[in-house]
C-alpha cells in the first residue's frame, strides 16, 4: 500500500461505489481502508454518516450503505456548510443575541445553551455560531471569542484570508446602484494566471455598471496596495465615480483608500457583481483560462479592452459602452477637449 498523502481529498463517486461493493462482499471498514489507501477513520465516518437512514415508528435506524445516496448526502452537507453563516446574518434577533453574548465573554456553547434555557423563539447550535464567526458575516467578532478554538491553525488561516476591516455589505448599497439608474457606480474583480504557472501576475478588471464600460490592467501580484493602486489609476478616466462593488478577496483589504465607497458581496455570491463577471468572460475569449498573463503585453490588453468597449450591447439599445460615456460627457479626455475648445 502506498503511503498516505498529507493533503486530504474528499471521497469521490468511484470510491463510494467501491465501498458499497466491498461492504456487500463482507469486508470490514479497516479492510476497505487498506484497499482504497485511506485512513480507517475516513472510511468508518463515511459509512456511519452517509449510509441510508430508514424511518420506523419511534425513530430511524441505519440502513444499507448506498454509494449514490452517500454521495448526495456528502454534497448537501458541504453545500450547506458554505451558507451556514448566512442563516444567522439573515435573522437580526439571533445575530444581536450572539453579539451581546460574545461581548459578555460567553462562549458559543454557552450562547447556544442559554438560548434554549430562555426558550427563545430562535436557536443556533454552537457549531453554527462558529461557522458564522469564521465567515465574512461574523469575522469582525472573532476577537471577542474567549475559547481556544479561535487559535487553531485552520481557522486562523481562513479568517486571515477573508478578514476585511470596516466592511460594508451589499445590502447597504443604495437602490440607484442596484437598478443601474445612475452613472458612477463601479464593479471590480481579478483574473489570475492558471495554476500551473508560478507567476502571480494578474489582471485587475473594472466595469462601470450603467454604461458597461470596461477597464483592465496588469498587476504584478494580488496585494491590497497593488490592486488599490490599479483601481485608482483606471478610475481616473471617469469623471463620476461614487461607489464600487467588490468580493471578499484579500486584494480588497485596502478599500478605505479608494476614492469611492466600497460595498462587498455576500460570500460565494459573485453573481452580485455580475457586470464585471460578464466582462471577465468576454476578456477570456482573448486570454483563455489557464494561460500565463505574463505572456500578454500591456498594449495587447489595451487593444482587447478597446474592442470590447466598441462592441454594441443589447442592454444599451445596441449602443457601445464608449458611446454611452461620450454622450454623457463622463470621460475625462472628452471634458478636457471641450474645455480647450472653449478657451
Going by helix content, strand content and strand pairing, the class is: alpha/beta
**CATH fold naming of the largest domain:** Nucleotidyltransferase, domain 5
Could you report the average pLDDT, rounded to the nearest whole number? 85
CATH architecture of the largest domain: 2-Layer Sandwich
| Number of E-state strands | 7
Count of helical stretches: 15
**What would CATH call the class of the largest domain?**
Alpha Beta
Cα end-to-end separation:
83 Å
Gyration radius from CA atoms, angstroms: 26 Å
Strand order of the largest sheet: 5-4-3-6-7
Main sheet attributes: strand count, strand direction, barrel closure:
5 strands, mixed
Strand content: 5-15%
Share of residues in helices:
40-55%
Number of structural units classed as domains: 3
Low-confidence stretches: 1-6, 150-162, 334-343
- Could you state the order of secondary-structure elements as H and E? HHHEEHHHHHHHEEEHEEHHHH
State the CATH superfamily name of the largest domain: Ribonuclease H-like superfamily/Ribonuclease H
User: So what's the overall shape?
Assistant: globular
Amino acid at each position: 500500500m502506498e503511503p498516505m498523502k498529507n493533503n486530504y481529498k474528499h471521497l469521490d463517486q468511484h470510491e463510494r461505489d467501491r465501498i458499497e461493493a466491498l461492504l456487500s462482499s463482507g469486508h470490514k471498514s479497516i479492510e476497505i481502508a487498506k484497499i482504497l489507501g485511506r485512513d480507517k477513520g475516513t472510511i468508518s465516518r463515511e459509512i456511519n454518516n452517509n449510509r441510508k437512514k430508514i424511518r420506523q415508528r419511534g425513530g430511524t435506524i441505519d440502513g444499507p450503505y448506498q454509494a449514490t445516496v452517500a454521495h448526495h448526502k456528502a454534497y448537501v452537507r458541504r453545500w450547506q456548510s458554505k451558507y451556514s453563516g448566512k442563516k444567522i446574518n439573515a435573522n437580526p434577533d439571533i445575530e444581536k443575541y450572539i453579539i451581546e453574548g460574545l461581548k459578555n465573554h460567553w462562549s458559543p456553547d454557552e450562547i447556544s445553551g442559554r438560548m434554549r434555557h430562555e426558550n427563545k423563539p430562535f436557536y443556533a447550535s454552537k457549531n453554527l455560531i462558529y461557522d458564522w464567526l469564521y465567515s465574512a458575516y461574523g469575522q469582525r467578532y472573532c476577537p471577542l471569542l474567549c475559547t481556544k478554538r479561535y487559535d487553531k491553525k485552520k481557522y486562523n488561516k481562513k479568517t486571515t484570508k477573508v478578514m476585511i476591516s470596516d466592511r460594508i455589505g451589499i445590502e447597504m448599497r443604495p437602490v440607484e446602484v442596484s437598478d443601474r439608474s445612475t452613472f458612477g457606480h463601479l464593479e471590480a474583480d481579478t483574473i489570475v494566471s492558471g495554476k500551473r504557472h508560478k507567476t502571480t501576475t494578474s489582471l485587475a478588471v473594472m466595469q462601470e455598471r450603467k454604461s458597461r464600460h470596461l477597464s483592465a490592467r496588469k498587476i504584478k501580484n494580488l496585494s491590497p496596495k497593488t490592486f488599490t493602486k490599479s483601481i485608482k489609476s483606471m478610475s481616473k478616466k471617469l469623471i463620476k465615480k461614487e461607489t464600487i462593488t467588490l468580493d471578499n478577496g484579500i486584494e480588497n483589504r485596502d478599500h478605505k483608500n479608494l476614492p469611492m465607497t466600497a460595498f462587498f458581496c455576500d460570500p460565494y455570491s459573485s453573481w452580485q457583481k455580475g457586470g464585471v463577471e460578464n466582462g471577465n468572460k468576454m476578456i477570456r475569449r482573448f486570454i483563455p483560462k489557464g494561460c500565463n498573463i505574463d505572456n500578454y503585453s500591456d498594449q495587447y490588453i489595451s487593444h482587447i479592452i478597446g474592442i470590447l468597449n466598441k462592441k454594441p450591447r443589447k442592454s444599451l439599445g445596441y449602443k457601445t459602452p464608449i458611446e454611452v460615456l461620450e454622450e454623457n460627457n463622463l470621460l475625462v479626455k472628452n471634458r478636457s477637449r471641450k474645455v480647450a475648445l472653449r478657451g
